[in-house]
């Protein structure tokens, strides 16, 4: 959204109230999911996997999207139905997809998505930055010590 602001482009977001993003420091319009899917040129999925988000992006959701749209999933594989995504890409209902995660992971080489020229699949590298790995190591260390001391763990699931 910050990058879009700098280019004088609009940004839409479908933010669940549970995340408490009312104080964002960049301009973003809060819209319903169907509105976001119908109006967006690029849809980036970053939500957590839950019973409500499993296969959130399926053939019905993909049918709402622009045929010129790009779908990026850097969240969790099962949020997107890979078979429905493959059909949409193959039939020109969606321009392209970029996946850092798949379901299953790794995706079998025989899956249709692997051979599509408009689908780019990475081997779950989204968190592979020095900054992120340093934070992960720090959290692991803090959680290890907290666990030994019987204290509450950070980011427990």
TrEMBL record:
<keyword id="KW-0560">Oxidoreductase</keyword>
<dbReference type="GO" id="GO:0005829">
    <property type="term" value="C:cytosol"/>
</dbReference>
<protein>
    <submittedName>
        <fullName>Glyoxylate reductase/hydroxypyruvate reductase</fullName>
    </submittedName>
</protein>
<dbReference type="Pfam" id="PF02826">
    <property type="entry name" value="2-Hacid_dh_C"/>
</dbReference>
<dbReference type="InterPro" id="IPR036291">
    <property type="entry name" value="NAD(P)-bd_dom_sf"/>
</dbReference>
<feature type="domain" description="D-isomer specific 2-hydroxyacid dehydrogenase NAD-binding">
    <location>
        <begin position="26"/>
        <end position="126"/>
    </location>
</feature>
<dbReference type="GO" id="GO:0030267">
    <property type="term" value="F:glyoxylate reductase (NADPH) activity"/>
</dbReference>
<dbReference type="GO" id="GO:0051287">
    <property type="term" value="F:NAD binding"/>
</dbReference>
<dbReference type="GO" id="GO:0016618">
    <property type="term" value="F:hydroxypyruvate reductase [NAD(P)H] activity"/>
</dbReference>
<dbReference type="InterPro" id="IPR029753">
    <property type="entry name" value="D-isomer_DH_CS"/>
</dbReference>
<dbReference type="InterPro" id="IPR006140">
    <property type="entry name" value="D-isomer_DH_NAD-bd"/>
</dbReference>
<keyword id="KW-0670">Pyruvate</keyword>
<dbReference type="InterPro" id="IPR050223">
    <property type="entry name" value="D-isomer_2-hydroxyacid_DH"/>
</dbReference>
